[in-house]
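User: Structure please.
Assistant: Input sequence and predicted structure:
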Amino acid sequence: MSVASATYTVAVAGLGKRGMHHAEAFAGNPRFRVVGLCNRGRERLEAGKVKFPEAYAGDDLAGMLAETRPDVFAFCTPPHVRLPLVRAGLEAGVKLIAYEKPMATSTNEALEIDRLLREAGVKSVVSHQHRYGEHYRKVKEIIAGGAIGRIHTVYGHATGWMMHMMTHLIDYVRWFNGNAEAEWVMGQAAGREKFADVHASPDHLAAMIQFDNGVRGIVECGAGAPDVPEVDYWWRKCRIGAQGTQGFAEVLTGGGWRAVTRDSHGVISGPGCMDYGHDMPPYVRDIAAWLDDPVKVHPCNGGSALKGFEIMMAACRSVVRRGRVSLPLGPGEPELEALKDVMP
């Protein structure tokens, strides 16, 4: 059997909506076979067993991984459960770990995850899968093709709060800017209500980013971020785009794309909407491609996710320090705790 036709086994932990999206996408690709399921709640576990009757199912993660020894471990759990699951996957000898954003809850944790994965030689993928949407890809095509001239500003905003949405926005802003390195970040935050949420965050966080190619980034999340009135569904109220010397191009997560280009003679636009049924299959396909060939690095690879996560955490540190923060970040006081302490 050639590497390109190998079948990889997958175990999934956390069988909520996103966990099932992952399990179903893996099962829908002939390169993968779902062999293990884990969830603490019995109701979701029983529902998973109905969909995947041949998979080992249980509420003990270590036992499930020991029994199945998967090639891929995917987990979709709340943000505060990252490092222990990464360690569990490494102990089980997996080849790749795929997990939900954000990759951690602090820079210290993110750096430890990155260190463990690199030392073990294990690949990782973080779920910034919206970039597979046709409307996202159309905007990237317009920007990369030079149709809006020299890019000077990239931007993104969402009404969802930081730990839900910000690494999504930063990932796509970095993509639209050719994955240029960030040099420094300045941030501002307001509101403490969302610190009580499972995705603990300030109510509103804004970040100004300076990239090493001269491009300025502006990203905002939460209750103070601009509305996207063109989109009805609250979670899809995300706008990400770029301004250039000869126009602009932007994507609305729930409302297609639009642009003014050098040659468009006015606004041009097209359809598109967040769609897990559309976005997850190519996300999974690219996991198989990376497992087959180390050169075919997944677009949502953990190294790229770390760079985006650092930008978000730099914005938090900037609020605490009341000044500009240089990148890359080193270890420090956990950002969310420090941020909560200084906010009125």
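The chain has ten helices and 15 strands.
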